[in-house]
Amino acid sequence: MATIQVDAKRHVEIGLGKKTDWAGAIFKISLIGSILFTLLILLVLLQQVATDGWSVLTTRFGDFVSGTLRSDPGEAGIKQGLQGTFWLAIITAGVAFPLGIGAAIYLEEYADRSSRVARFIDLNIRNLAGVPSVVYGILGLTIFVRALGPLTGGPTPLAAGLTLAALVLPIVIITSAEALRSTPQPLREAAIGVGATKWESIKDHILPYAAPGILTGTLLSLARAAGEAAPLLLVGAITGRLGGNYGLTDVSQVRERFTAMPIVITSWAKQPQQEFKVDNAAAAIVILILFVLLLNSVAILLRNRFERKRAG
Amino acid sequence: MTAPTLDPLGGLAGSGTRRRKEARVRRTVFSAAAVSILISGLIVASLITEALRFLLEVDFAELWSSSGWIPRQNHFDFITILVASLWVTVIAILFAAPLGLASAVYLSEYARPRVRSLLKPILEVLAGIPSVVVGYFALQFINPDLVTNVFTSANRAGNMIAAGIGVGILTIPLIASISEDALSSVPMNLREASAGVGARKMTTTIRVVIPAAVSGLTAAFIIAISRAIGETMVVFIAGGAADSAPRVLEPTGGSLTMTAAMASVASGTDNVAGVGPTFQSLFFVGLVLFLVTLMLNVVATRFVNRFRQAY
Prior knowledge:
In chain A, 78% of the residues lie in helices and 0% in strands. By secondary structure, chain A is mostly helical. A three-stranded antiparallel beta sheet of chain B has the order 2-1-3. The interface between A and B is large, with 94 and 91 residues.
């Protein structure tokens, strides 16, 4: 009894002597301040491009989206940029997704993780993920534009799409491998147990289970590819002397000269005229951001749902 | 295991078609994985041949004693583009490291799950902003509204400070996400032990959690440095130099980083003609860039592995 009373008294004394932890409060506020400042940067950035692009987007949206690149800023549009980005995205996805998911299946399901080959491939992928995008441009220029020129037609969407596919391949592999790794082991054991081959267990059970995770990674990588400009500059994207006027779905344009949204933006942002470097550039940015953020937010939502489902 | 299996029941090996299909799939996915090795090999091969040709053709003195990076006049002063890369990287990290680290500490140590799930997408959205957009922002807002107000002598058409802050904005989410991973993998019992001996939350965070995560945090900074050195479009748009740059040592001047020099060779009036030292300089700068970032990434991987092993 007595000891309890003493303890309780001590406790009260400590409680009474407790002062407000000012240093701790300041520390916490500065942490919150940092993350709010980051939010502020994002908001100012979005507000800046929205106001700069506002006049073009509201007064001549239709003409801007369907118009071609011209020297008169009041008539210039982004049709070729949108079309180039559309085809680049298709080629990049068509090449990088199957290759990346295949490589991830090899690393996670087939390879002996401790084997020298698997470890070498793994290390190599991690290093590739850190190579600057502009260096991939050199790869594209030497291999896809020049060495494989007869096949790709030189500086074309085909060559650029292959370059972007190489650029996002490590991201696709790493995120797909993570999704496969989070698949429960019993799923594999049950499938093998009822006599499925390894591939049948992967195709029918593991891939469907990992699909949302894989889709998240592929969407993020596609968003990255759509916003990339540096490798395209090296592969030979241009903004003048673009050839004929192609329809959106005309496949023959993948072997012609091309441009893309980030290239149009860069070229306009560096023009001397205010109408180009501010009004038109910002309007094009708004459209590019909407596209990239759409891909990103679908990916983030998908991942959050996926995580909640797994946790619950 | 090693002895050949007797097969008393006959059909245990399964049907031949299924086994052949299995082998075919295995070969296919292995080839997919091998493509990544092929890509690495091709990157190195495409860099080295032309880079060596550049070194053979260019007067060696031009690499560090000429008046600047002026490819048209065969001046390839490496100091110009190295200094610019250094400034941009230093400014980017000075700007992004405190913001990224503090955001990570808040998200990992302080934020309740609900606040966390509201704030975390901010960093993810920021990570998704294309670099050309940040380049535009640096040129149209950061430089005219902030940098030239503070540094009145700064180049109005763009400079290394504005470009550095822009690159910093791109690296905040990177630092925050790797740091948060490192902090949240510190075991809970370290925090509990610290609180148990009477430490305040702040003391626990600064003296226990951050030191315990230090190798992961170091990796975050190294990866951010590597990303900052390799960032191209922000500097190309907001760096204040077009095709060439005289040697400028102050960050308030317009200049070309290694990456921006490559972009301008590829797109400027010195177009990618395919011959001559200007074209080959592209490969030499690319090779240097490749080696520097590779080295940084290898070091960062070491640090990451160290903190993975610890916990």
